[in-house]
């Protein structure tokens, strides 16, 4: 049995919440996914399940600066806010997190407040001498009519194998606005598996910029549900996969309210033997008349050995919608490279310029200048 499953096979302590008991039972009954599961078809967990991980509680609690109108607290696994566990599906690694987390970082933005500075939740995992696993969990609640920016980051120092099983739940009240930047940069022997679940109320606007930078496994499962009329979700992402990296994005946008809109734009840059997976789904329920939803995934292969598996698709159960999806995989434009070379720029420098421009088409829309420059630096450092 995997060391990850052994942790929930022991007797559960008294006083545990119903969420954690339900999650533990889900792990016991279903275990961890395999390549026979459609959502894990191109992502094997053999390397993960074969490592004897030891759980490290509170391995990297974020340091957060207080701001007017923002309440931040850390609660234990026994004293949970009502919203915890109501968004993220209790299955597989999200169930493992729900069964074993020791605390929740809770961020609440008061109704009507405009938060001027980004709320930064930075987790940096120190190097260890033995394989470790940790279960960070975050809840963000943005009140009615409030406006805020959240920066959530995960990075790890080189060391023994590390598994970060992270779950974040985001609740937007009516007419709230939130831009959420999330980046993960695990080291070469680290595995990052995240679940991000978002609920968007009437007239609210949620924007996300996801940046994934390498890692033995760097996977994010993002589920956004638009539950109120005229709600909006703008989901952007950039991922860079190089030698020995495997990056996987599973994106699901559910339209259950009328006249809501969503946009997905994900860009991938792959080099060496890098591997990437993109699986995006737009679901329009019967109650989602007037939906306007679009999805695109574009990838550039910077080497012959890189590979990407992309599968955007739609599920529509009503009429009166405008929906589209598409994906591309290709190399850098030779005509553009030739133009740069006629201007005295060698091929390597020309490829770097075009690769940066490809990522910049996403990063330029990050609203906060400081956050935008940080992302540009991270992407530049990870490009070959």
Protein architecture, described:
The chain has 384 residues and is an alpha/beta fold. The protein has one domain (3-333). The chain contains seven helices and 19 strands. It has helices spanning 3-9, 18-30, 46-49, 92-100, 334-342, 347-363, 369-382, and strands at residues 54-55, 70-76, 103-109, 119-125, 132-134, 137-142, 147-156, 162-172, 177-185, 190-200, 205-213, 217-226, 232-241, 246-255, 261-270, 275-284, 292-301, 307-316, 322-330. Strands 1, 2, 3, 5, 6, 8, 10, 12, 14, 16 and 18 form an eleven-stranded mixed β-sheet that branches. Helix 6 packs antiparallel against helix 7 (369-382). The two termini are 39 Å apart. The mean pLDDT is 92.
Q: Topology of this structure?
A:
Blueprint: H1 3-9, H2 18-30, H3 46-49, E1 54-55, E2 70-76, H4 92-100, E3 103-109, E4 119-125, E5 132-134, E6 137-142, E7 147-156, E8 162-172, E9 177-185, E10 190-200, E11 205-213, E12 217-226, E13 232-241, E14 246-255, E15 261-270, E16 275-284, E17 292-301, E18 307-316, E19 322-330, H5 334-342, H6 347-363, H7 369-382
Parallel strand pairs: 1-5, 3-6, 4-7, 5-8, 6-8, 7-9, 8-10, 9-11, 10-12, 11-13, 12-14, 13-15, 14-16, 15-17, 16-18, 17-19
Antiparallel strand pairs: 2-3
Helix pairs in contact: 2-4, 5-6, 6-7
